[in-house]
Amino acid sequence: MIKQIKGLHHVTSLASGARENNAFFTNVLGLRRVKQTVNFDAPDVYHLYYGDETGSAGTVMTYFPFPNAGRGRAGAGEVGRTSFAIPTGTSQAWLDRLATFETDGLAQDIRFGEKRVLFNGPDGDLFALVERDDGRTPWTGNGVAEDIAIRGFHSTDMRLRDGDASAELLRFMGYEKLDSENNVTRFIVPGGNDANAIDIEVTPSAPRAAQGAGSVHHIAFAVDNRARQLEVREALLDTGYQVTPVIDRDYFYAIYFRTPGGVLFEVATNEPGFARDEDTAHLGQALQLPSQHEHLRAQLENLLEPLEG
């Protein structure tokens, strides 16, 4: 069994417009844009990162906003909903705030005894704000008061036709079953970070998901460093998973593999972090380019949609 994984590192999704995406996560949800860079494989597309002050592991939502991308089709074999942690007793404040911004899909429910505010992102992305006691320090620079501000991730939902093989994988990755409720089973990694939960939602009759704007591309799990990552990679390979070589993503090192249910998993290092190319006070303010794309700077700065204005 793998013991190096600490919980979620980041969640990466697809969007149809950079400016709208940036406004939603910074103005509506109050997260900090900790990095604006580009897709390594398609440098004419942004890669935007939102999180806490420093982009701590377990707080960072990232997006590839492909201009005018078509909507994804919800279904099985994907991450269906991404959940953030908010302080206990703040659901009504968030309902009021989201209503002010005319946010779609507003609803409330309770899962595993925790109150949730459900809502949709600009491309139909499914999100939840989950009440719980959480000691993480939130980012408050975008005008959301500290007493209600998002603390980071709570969990993600994997929507699957059959959850058995993916549950076995999570157990191998160090997760333990916490509880089951209706068609949802929650797994947590003991001793992990504060983003330590994964929910498996079994929907046997759901159609297969098709990715597009609003779809989660992959979820990433955190390990402390490259040595721990190589140990995880070797363990996965020994179990029969097809795992990529280590890829340098500038702000972390990544490996990827496809799960039995179809969801793409990444294992990412907590090092070197988002301050490697700009100081913490100015994170996300300037366009940062991977070295292999620096020669395209003038062209990209003219091509990429301005994030503000």
From TrEMBL:
Database matches in SUPFAM superfamilies: Glyoxalase/Bleomycin resistance protein/Dihydroxybiphenyl dioxygenase
Listed Pfam families: Glyoxalase
Family annotation (PROSITE patterns): VOC
Span of domain VOC: 7-132, 152-270
InterPro entries to which the protein is assigned, alphabetical: Extradiol_RC_dioxygenase, Glyas_Bleomycin-R_OHBP_Dase, Glyas_Fos-R_dOase_dom, VOC_core
PANTHER family associated with the record: RING-CLEAVING DIOXYGENASE MHQE-RELATED
Protein name in UniProt: VOC domain-containing protein
Organism in which the protein naturally occurs: Yoonia vestfoldensis SKA53
Organism lineage: Bacteria, Pseudomonadati, Pseudomonadota, Alphaproteobacteria, Rhodobacterales
